[in-house]
Design a protein that fits this description.
single chain, Alpha-Beta Plaits, 2 domains, five-stranded mixed beta sheet, 13 helices, about 10% strand
Length: about 375
C-alpha cells in the first residue's frame, strides 16, 4: 500500500500535498458514479446517458490528475488546479441535473458539498468566481431542461430550485471569505508564536551583551562534543581566554567602555574561529573556545593568530581609543577524563599564562 501511495501521490512532499487535494474530487466522483448507477438501475435515468456521463466525468478528472502528477501544473498560479476541479465537478453536476429528471433534487446537496471542499483549497476571489459560474451553469441546465421536458421539469419547480441555488451559493462565497480570514489569522498567530519561541531560545542560549553562546549552553555543547569523541575516537581542545588588565579599563573609563571592549573582542574572536569551533562567554572577561577534531599543536597556532587579531584592534568609544590583548590557557582532551577535568587544566594553564605577562598562551600538560 505504501508503494502504491508513492506511485499515485509521488514521494516529493510539495507534489504529494497537491495530489492529495485531488482526493476529495475523486471521492465525490465515486459517490456520484454509485448514485447515477442506482438511478439507471431503477429506470429513472437512461443507461446510455449515465455511461456517457460517467466516461466524461472520469476523463476530465483523470486529465487534471495527470497534469498535476506530471508536474506540468507547477507552472500555473494554482499548481493544485483546485479551481479547475471545481469547474469540472460543477459542470458534471449540472449535466447530471439535466439527466436525472424526477431524481434531480439529489444533485443540489452534492453541489453544496463540492463548493464546501473548494472553500478549503481555493482563494476567495476564485471561490467567488466559481460561485457565479455555478449559478450560471445551473441556470442553463434548468432553463434547457424546462424547455425540452416541461412535463418533468415543471417551470414553477425549476424556478424554486434556481432560487434555492441563487440564495445558497453566494452564502458559500461569504463563508469562504470568513474561512480565509480565519486561516490568515491562524498563520499570523503561528508566525508570531514561532518568532517568540525563537527569541526565547536565543535569550536562554546567548549572552545578552556579546551575543555569544552563554555558559549554560556551552556546557551542554561540550558534553555533546565529549560524547561524540567517545564514539569516534577523535579529540578536541578547550581554550580559556581572558582579556588582560580588564579591571583597570572599567575603573579608568567606566563600565560602558568595558562593555564596548567585551563586544569588540567577542566580535573579532567570532570572526577568526573556524565554523566548526564554538566560542562562548564564560563570565566577566573570560571566554571559552572549543576546537573540534584538533590537537593541541594546531589549536595553539589558531589561538596565537586570534591573539594577534585582537591585539590589532583599536576600540573607539566616546572619544577613547583602547588597545587590548588576551591571554590563553589551552588543554587537549585526554581519553578517560571528564569535560570538567579538561576545562580545569585549561584554567590552570591560563593562570600560568597570566603569570608570564600579557598576550601569552600556555598549553596544559
Amino acid at each position: 500500500m505504501s508503494r502504491l501511495a508513492d506511485v499515485l501521490l509521488s514521494t516529493e512532499p510539495t507534489q504529494r500535498a497537491r495530489l492529495a487535494q485531488v482526493g476529495p474530487a475523486l471521492l465525490l466522483l465515486g459517490a456520484g458514479l454509485v448514485g447515477m448507477a442506482y438511478f439507471a438501475a431503477v429506470g429513472i435515468a437512461r443507461v446510455e446517458a449515465v455511461l456517457w456521463w460517467g466516461a466524461i466525468t472520469v476523463l476530465g478528472l483523470a486529465a487534471i490528475y495527470a497534469l498535476v502528477r506530471s508536474g506540468w501544473s507547477s507552472r500555473l498560479r494554482e499548481p493544485a488546479m483546485v479551481t479547475a476541479q471545481l469547474v469540472w465537478a460543477v459542470a458534471c453536476a449540472a449535466l447530471a441535473y439535466a439527466l436525472l429528471g424526477p431524481a434531480r433534487g439529489a444533485v443540489l446537496p452534492v453541489v453544496m458539498v463540492i463548493l464546501m471542499f473548494g472553500m478549503f483549497g481555493a482563494s476567495v476571489p476564485r471561490m467567488r468566481w466559481v460561485c457565479v459560474y455555478t449559478v450560471a451553469a445551473f441556470a442553463v441546465a434548468i432553463v434547457t431542461s424546462a424547455l425540452r421536458r416541461p412535463a418533468v421539469y415543471a417551470p414553477a419547480v425549476e424556478f424554486g430550485h434556481f432560487l434555492l441555488l441563487a440564495t445558497m451559493v453566494p452564502a458559500v462565497a461569504v463563508l469562504a471569505a470568513r474561512l480565509a480570514r480565519l486561516r490568515q489569522r491562524a498563520r499570523h498567530q503561528r508566525s508570531e508564536l514561532t518568532q517568540t519561541l525563537a527569541r526565547m531560545r536565543e535569550q536562554t542560549t546567548r549572552d545578552e551583551l556579546t551575543g555569544l553562546i552563554n555558559r549554560r549552553h556551552m556546557a551542554e555543547l561540550m558534553d555533546q562534543e565529549h560524547q561524540r569523541c567517545i564514539r569516534s575516537g577523535q579529540s578536541f581542545c578547550l581554550a580559556m581566554l581572558d582579556i588582560d588588565r580588564f579591571k583597570p579599563v572599567n575603573e579608568a573609563h567606566g563600565y560602558a567602555v568595558g562593555d564596548a571592549v567585551l563586544r569588540a573582542v567577542a566580535d573579532e574572536a567570532q570572526r577568526q574561529v573556524r565554523v566548526c569551533d564554538t566560542l562562548a562567554r564564560w563570565g566577566g572577561e573570560e571566554f571559552v573556545l572549543m576546537l573540534s577534531d584538533t590537537r593541541a599543536a594546531l589549536a595553539r597556532g589558531g589561538i596565537e593568530r586570534l591573539q594577534q587579531r585582537v591585539a590589532a584592534l583599536r576600540i573607539l568609544h566616546g572619544g577613547v581609543a583602547l588597545g587590548v590583548s588576551i591571554s590563553g590557557g589551552l588543554s587537549e582532551h585526554h581519553a578517560g577524563e571528564t569535560v570538567a577535568q579538561t576545562l580545569e587544566r585549561a584554567e590552570r594553564a591560563l593562570g600560568d599564562a597570566k603569570a608570564l605577562g600579557s598576550g601569552k598562551v600556555v598549553v596544559a600538560p
